[in-house]
Each structure stands twice: as structure tokens, then as C-alpha cells.
Amino acid sequence: MELQQNPNLLWFIVIYGLIMVGIGIFMSKKVAGSEDFVLAGKSLGPFVLMGTLLATWTGSGSISGGETSMAFSYGILPSLMMMLPTLVGIIILYVVAPKIRAYGKFTVSGILEAKYGRTSRNIASVIIILAYVGIVSYQMKGFGFILNLTTGMSVQTGTIIGAAMIIFLAMIGGLRSVSQTDAISGFLMVGGLIITVPTIIAVAGGWSEVVANVPESHMSSTGGLTTIQMIGYLLPSLFLLLGDQNMYQRLASSKGDKSAKRAQLGWLIAMLVISPSISLIAFASRSLFPNIDPGMALMATTVAMPMAIGGILLAAAASFIITTGNSYLLSAATNLTYDLYGKYVNKDASDRKLLSMTRIFIAALGIFSYLLISYFPTVLSVQMYAYTVYGAGLTPAVLAVFFWKRVNAVGGVSSMVAGVVATLTWEIILQKPFEVNSVVVAVPVAVIVLIVATLLTTNNYQTRSVTSNA
């Protein structure tokens, strides 16, 4: 089937955009201060919290990379396996959530500082900003794909428009507005995907016709990938999720532990619908449009279905992309404000000044995100890089705070440095040998360094002392 633009689908995006902007402006008037801006006054109930967790996690990484690119490039089974790290991560966060709330910190850097000291905060802030800027950048490109598909405008021009919308929505109301738009987007996406799966399979001629039109390797368990390559695609999302500041920030914003637990259970159930649906839609797209960019696989199906269904799916995809982008942008700006500006530049900054600086940093990091995406050939490539920088650099040290009382500052800081250095060395200097993603090397290095450095520098007396002070 030939891929043709359908400008009429643009109306669904316009309507969605106007609704989101309207909600953002309305909620911005309720922002009472900087803490309210970044934690929504710790007022999120289970319904809104579930929606914002869902929408924040499932963005362009799934719509243009992740499950979508895996289904199109390697097959249905490798794509379905991409769901497993998310499910495992949600279950572990369910256990950790009360401890996160007990720490009462705005950022992951703040949690690390409480255990490892100021040096860990500084390193963590840099890691978070590097990773989150990368994540925001491919949300912008994902929106560019949508506008290219509907109007025929260049992906680059569409990316600029996506960047402007992401930056604006993050700036005006912070988590107050982001959480509300996230919740709407999350439920829109679930509904859109449920409708789309049977429709697109029928349009493609049925499941047997889909299977007949894809390469034979696409029906194998790994799609031609080696086991180590498959592991390299699975681990980055798990280690990002386990230490993701966005998730920690949202869990800390809930009304209480009960609300957080209900929201996480809802999130788990929703992911059991969303991830397989994305995989099936992208796999059917491989049968219909074998020569398109893998990142456009899901969105391309919108032009092959009845306009109402295609428009709902396109609006849903746009909603996840925009909400994920502004969530990660807000989180990165929060780090700059509280962990760097508030600590070193202006220690006596007023609440109003902190709020103003957060908005300025949102704009600056948003522009940087747009510039970054031009250096990566595909959404999937920047996704794996950003996830691993974060997952290897922070997650082992963060989880040790909650699960290993003996861990000390030397172990935590050494692990963070080792994880980032291993990632950059594998990806940039060695140019990803054997086409294996750096997570396979970087995470084990970070964990081993964490354990060895702690054991070599802590005796029993020091352990008791550090634990009592933590």
C-alpha cells in the first residue's frame, strides 16, 4: 500500500492541542509557588496519578522507538518482549514508593545527596540533564513525524512545532497542568489503541495476510538478533524506570501511600493493554508499508483506516509524545533550579525567583533538546543511549539507597562515574562493537564498582556509623 498524506487528520491534532493548551492555562492560575509547580501540592489522587505515570512513561519512545521500531524491524515477539522490563519495573517501584515519599525530596539528586553527600548530587544532576534532554529531543521528532504524515511538511519543520508546544505546556503550569493533561492523554491512548488493533489487522487483510507479507525472520523469537543484542534492547528501559526521577517526582506528589499504590496497579494493568497493542499495530504496518522509516510504523496506519479511527489514534499518539516531552523537560529543569542554581548560584533565592528560574531553564533545555536530535539517525538509537546513560549512571546507586544499608559514599559515587564512563566509552569511543547496546556492559560495570568500592572502604564500625547518620 502506498503511504499518502491525509491533511484532514490534522484537525484531530489541532483539537487535541487546543484542549491541552486550554487546560494548561487554566491550571497555571492555580500554581501557588515553586513547590506547587514541581510537586502539584502533593495533591494527586489515584486516577490522575495513574494517568500521569502512564502518559509520562509511554511517549515517543514507544510510539516511534521501542515497541514500534522493534516490531517493524525485527518482528512481533521481540517487540512483545519490550513490555517485560516495564512490568518488572512497575512492580519494583510498587515496593519502593513508600520509601520515596518518606525521603520527601524533589529530585533523585536530593535522595542521593542524603546518602552519599554533595558530590553525588552534582554528578547526578549532570547525568539527569544529559539523559532527559535526549529523551525530550526524540519526543519533538516524534511530533515531527506526525505532522509530516498528515500535512506533508518536512519532519524538521514538524519537529520545531513539536518543540514549541512541549516547551510551552511545561512552562505555563508545571506539574499542576502536566498531570492533568497527562491523565487525559493516558486514557485517550488506551481507548485509541483498543479500537485500532482489530481495525488495522482487518484493513491489512487479516492476521494470516500480515504474517505472509513480513520477512520470515519477523516470526522468530529474536527476529535475527543475537541473545546479547536482545538483552541490550531490554535492559535500558528497566534501569531507566527503576531510577527515573519523573516517576519518583510523581509518586512523591500523591496524596499518600494508598493513592500511590492504587495508581501503580492501574498503571500496570494499562501497560498490559498498551504495549501489546502498539506491537500489533506496528507489526501490521510492516505488512502494509514495508519501506517507511521504522519510527513512523504506528502513525502510518492512521492513513489506512477510517478517518475517525485514524484521527483518534493520531491524536492519542500526539498526546503521549507531548506529555512525555513536557514531563521530562520539567524534571530536568527542576534539577537545574534546585540542585545547581539554588545550591551554588543563589542560595537565598526567593520562592518566586525559583519558580521564574525553573521556567527559564525549561525554555533553555527545550532548545538544547531540539538541537540534539539532529545528531542521532533514529529515534531508537537516541532512546537506547539516553536510557543507558541514566540507567547505568544512576539506578544502581539509587536502588542501593533503599535496599543496601551498608552502601557508602565511595561506592555510590564510584558507581555513578563508572556507569557513565562505560556508556560513553562503548557508544562514542568504541562505536558500539558487535551492534550491542552499551547497557550490556555499563550496568554490570556500575553494579560491580558499587559493591567492590563499598566493601573495600567500609568496615563494620563505619557501616554502623554511616547507617545511623543516613
Automatic annotation (TrEMBL):
Q: Does the keyword Ribosomal protein apply?
A: no
| InterPro entries documented for this protein | Na/Glc_symporter_sf, Na/solute_symporter, Sodium:Solute_Symporter
Q: Which UniProt keywords apply?
A: Membrane, Transmembrane, Transmembrane helix, Transport
* Top-level taxon of origin: Bacteria
Q: Which GO terms describe its molecular function?
A: transmembrane transporter activity
Record's keyword annotation contains Membrane = yes
Give the family, as the similarity comment puts it: Belongs to the sodium:solute symporter (SSF) (TC 2.A.21) family.
Protein name, entry field:
SSS family transporter (Probable function sodium:proline symport)
Could you name the Gene Ontology cellular component terms for this entry? Answer: plasma membrane
Membrane topology per record: Multi-pass membrane protein
Q: Which residues cross the membrane?
A: 6-27, 39-59, 71-96, 123-147, 153-175, 187-207, 227-244, 265-284, 296-322, 360-378, 384-403, 410-430, 436-456
Upper classification of the organism: Bacteria, Bacillati, Bacillota, Bacilli, Bacillales
